[in-house]
Amino acid sequence: MTGLPRPLRLVLRRLAGALPVLALVVVGSFLLLEAAPGDAVDAYLAGIGGGDAGQMAALRAEWGLDQGPLPRLAAYVTALLRLDLGWSSAFERPVLEVVLERLPNTLLLMGMATALALSLGSLLGIVCGARPGSVQDRALSLAAIAVYATPGFWLGLVLIVAFSVELRWLPSGGIETTASGLAGWDRAVDIARHLVLPVLALGLVYMALYLRLMRDGMAELWGQDFVRAARARGMSGRRLVLRHVARNALLPVVTMLGLQSASMLGGSVVVESVFAIPGLGRLAQESVARRDTPLLLGVVLLSAVVVMLVNLVIDLAYALLDPRVGSGGGG
User: Fold this and answer.
1) Domains and their CATH numbers in the chain
2) I want to staple 88 with a disulfide (CB 3.0 to 4.6 A). Which of 197, 295, 324, 327 is the partner?
3) For residue 200, which phi and psi values (nearest 5 degrees)?
4) 53 contacts: CB under 8 Å, gap ≥ 6
């Protein structure tokens, strides 16, 4: 692969490493769910008031639960190779169809929260790092620590009470107004209004983390030789801060962005529950409650794919910021 462009070599290496990780996710998740007591038949019969042994046996045979774990694992992996995630007994629809229906809501929430956290956190971090130890640095750093220590679900509840209950400025939940009949730009504005509070609840916590990373990185770089050399050449303060100090301090922020993608996806589960957003988080909660193993496996697998794709994008961004990444000839 030495003759390929550097970004393409990086993508191929990441894709090759993703295959065993996905295999481990599938097998591990399946075995963990098998170890849990009960199955979808138990949850279904409990929901309808119970059933006799004959009905339970018939349902297990119909849903393929009458076989052992290993045959079912082999059948599940074989179906995955055909891009078939199985059948959801809870929704009575293909798992892939149900998951893809909920995925855009989660991606929209994560994308907007990530954009808010990265942009605002980096900007405030530059403000702090431009003059470490100043009054504004101490005030913003203290506020960032307070926000980062606040649980996301509690912050979400506070935002609902303040902006939905008391001020009545924003909706308290959902992804859009039910049966509103809105379309086009009006629907986009309605969805944006519904996402303001969830995005703040999810994004502010990570914004505080990126602020601290940017601030600490810039504070450490001020004593480096290349910064002193730039000062000796008479470089202006703003240009020095943005082009030399802030750009190099951005590298650990971008790295943390990739590492935190899985945590943000996990945090979206809580935020979606608080704000009643029909995304992957609520879908996972519903699949656990109904013991719908194929649906939960589909959510876990697709979540793993999303995290891997996010990290791939982060790796490409990192390669643009630092030319040394992916430039080795070993790939």
Assistant:
1) 96-321 (1.10.3720.10)
2) 295
3) -65, -45
4) none
